[in-house]
Write a structure and sequence with these properties.
The N and C termini lie far apart (about 75 Å). This protein has about 350 residues and is an alpha/beta fold. It has helices spanning about 5-30, 60-65, 90-105, 125-135, 155-170, 255-265, 280-290, 315-320, 330-345, 350-359; strands spanning about 30-40, 75-85, 115, 140-145, 175-180, 185, 190-195, 200-205, 210-215, 215-220, 245-250, 270-275, 295-300, 325. The longest helix is centred in the N-terminal third of the chain and has 27 residues, at about 5-30. The protein binds succinic acid (SIN).
Length: about 350
């Protein structure tokens, strides 16, 4: 072999090795994030970009990731399709699958964070459930959209980009389960869907949003409120179902028929979305007293979207055997009561009250 030819091959080999090392180095510095897709409007499609009608849960995860420019520059991404439903059809079954899979993934050294795509309608319930059952301080970020993927100015792609940025950020460690939407980062404890359709539907009215994420730039203002993730006493290990807990909506001249039907149908706990400060009419209070005397827990939450239900307000819980949901809205109080009953079906009223205040 001529000397010149030898140097040519030698140089090519060196360049090749340098290139491979460069690519590996790039991949190593990027965090590894797994995206678990469950459906929702973010995966929805409609016939017209300017029409409001669409079907949720149509686009699959690979296609969703590929539609977001530069998202693979934020993290090494892997997608998994856990479900593909509108979140009105989210179920305890999928919650358990999600929590178990997230725990499995985050236990691995080579997984740095998880993103979950979800519908907005029950997103806060899934977020709160995971906040209580994920056993890791690595970031878990829920992402959704108010406009379908085919709508004019669809918000899903940027929300997904930002969600991956939050999951990839070292700042997100220990923040519990978060919801990243409309440039805001919310904690699972505080977040609420407050508006039916606009893109600024999610707020954290009692505690304020945790931080912001602007085109991938993450900033936190404070830590989340409430016990979560590695400090939570709840676990999904070996759990295949949760006890039935129903919600009844309070109103003027409310009848107690529904409450009695729920108990007869096998509810192990009842949440009353009471009027005002978790109030209810005299008949419902008497029904609550009768039911709690049989050992079924009744939790007073409120149909008012913002505020705390006082333990000693117009209703004094001790007099009726009830429990206040404190800051938890009816749907989150339901999640907590289901987990509490799953852990201890004979949980005391006092212990349940403590949980409502602390989580
Ligand atoms: C859903 O919750 O799946 C439908 C609504 C939405 O995602 O915005």
């Amino acid at each position: 072999m001529k000397r010149r030819q030898f140097f040519k091959i030698f140089l090519t080999a060196i360049l090749f090795v340098a290139f491979v090392s460069f690519v590996n180095a790039q991949n190593k510095v990027l965090p590894n994030v797994v995206v678990l897709a469950t459906g929702g409007t973010i995966a929805g499609t409609g016939e017209s970009a300017t029409g409001s009608s669409y079907t949720a849960g149509q686009v699959r995860i690979g296609e969703m990731i590929d539609a977001v420019p530069n998202i693979r520059k934020l993290a090494n991404l892997t997608g998994e399709q856990t479900a593909n439903v509108g979140s009105q059809d989210m179920s305890v079954e999928v919650w358990l699958i999600l929590a178990k899979r997230i725990n499995e993934l985050l236990a691995k050294d080579d997984v740095d964070g998880v993103v979950i795509t979800h519908g907005t309608d029950t997103q806060e319930e899934t977020a709160f459930f995971l906040n209580l059952t994920v056993k890791s301080d690595k970031p878990v970020v829920m992402v959704s959209a108010m406009r379908s993927s085919t709508a004019l100015s669809a918000d899903g792609p940027l929300n997904l980009y930002n969600g991956v940025a939050v999951a990839a950020s070292p700042l997100s460690k220990g923040m519990g389960v978060m919801v990243a939407i409309n440039d805001a980062i919310h904690s699972a404890h505080a977040v609420k869907k407050m508006l039916t359709t606009p893109v600024h539907a999610f707020m954290s009215p009692e505690h304020g949003q945790l931080g912001t994420v602007n085109f991938g730039q993450v900033e936190f203002f404070h830590k989340p409120h409430g016990i979560h993730t590695i400090n939570s006493e709840f676990s999904v290990d070996g759990v295949t179902e949760l006890p039935r807990v129903d919600i009844v909506y309070g109103c003027a001249d409310m009848s107690t028929d529904l409450i009695d039907i729920m108990v007869k149908a096998g509810a192990k706990g009842i949440i009353i979305a009471g009027v005002g400060d978790g109030n209810m009419n005299a008949g419902t209070l008497e029904a609550a007293k009768r039911i709690t005397a049989t050992g079924i827990h009744v939790v007073r939450a409120s149909r008012i979207p913002v505020g705390t239900v006082l333990i000693e307000g117009e209703v004094v819980d001790e007099d009726y055997g009830t429990v206040s949901s404190d800051e938890l809205n009816p749907q989150k109080a339901r999640v907590l009561l289901m987990l509490a009953l799953q852990k201890d079906k004979n949980i005391s009223r006092e212990k349940l009250q403590e949980l409502m205040i602390n989580y």
